[in-house]
Amino acid sequence: MKIQCIVAHPRSDSFCHSVFEHATLTLRQAGHELVTHDLYAENFDPVLKAEEAYTTGDTIEETVSKTTDPVVTRHRQEMLVAEGLLIVHPNWWGKPPAILAGWLDRVLVPGVAYRLDCAEGEPDGLLSIDTALVLNTSDTPAEREASVLGDPLQLIWANCVLPYCGVKRIERRMFGAVAGSGLDMRERWLNEVCDLSIGCFPEAT
User: Fold this and answer.
1) Who's near 26: CB < 8 A, 6+ residues apart?
2) What H or E segment, with its residue span, contains residue 7?
3) Distance in angstroms (rounded) separating the CA atoms of residues 150 and 162
4) Is the whole model's pTM more than 0.90, yes or no?
């Protein structure tokens, strides 16, 4: 399976990166074909350009080429052929980091991720992704995240973004609170990352 793998955290020594490394290693060992991007390490430009700001009416061919940025073009082409998706990022103010939000703005565009014939219509999801796994790190206790804050990241990924693009199955797990956690707890979390990765993307045959 071709799996697009995205991590968004500015520190390469973060627990977020450990989660990403364990997930991608597990997927490689399971025989999957991975395309990996560390958005901060690659200095991805998250700023949507004027010529990229549109919502309806483009074909896939028009959309992929409707940017002067070769990096964005490559990301769009990769998403068109991806069969699975792994996204790893921290919970910052109940949302993804700005660099990842900008990646969504510039890559998951009409003609690549969805088609919308009119502003009032329902979208047709265009991605060929059956399963997406979203892994988050957080310093907010899980109970507070759910009962007080309403788990905004779940709303973003599982209600708003991925179903809109045609993703059929969305699995998400939040690990935390990371601050103050011991090595034993982090090891248990990383073991869970491996189990989740295989659970979502079984061994390639």
Assistant:
1) 193, 194, 197, 198
2) strand 2-7
3) 18
4) yes
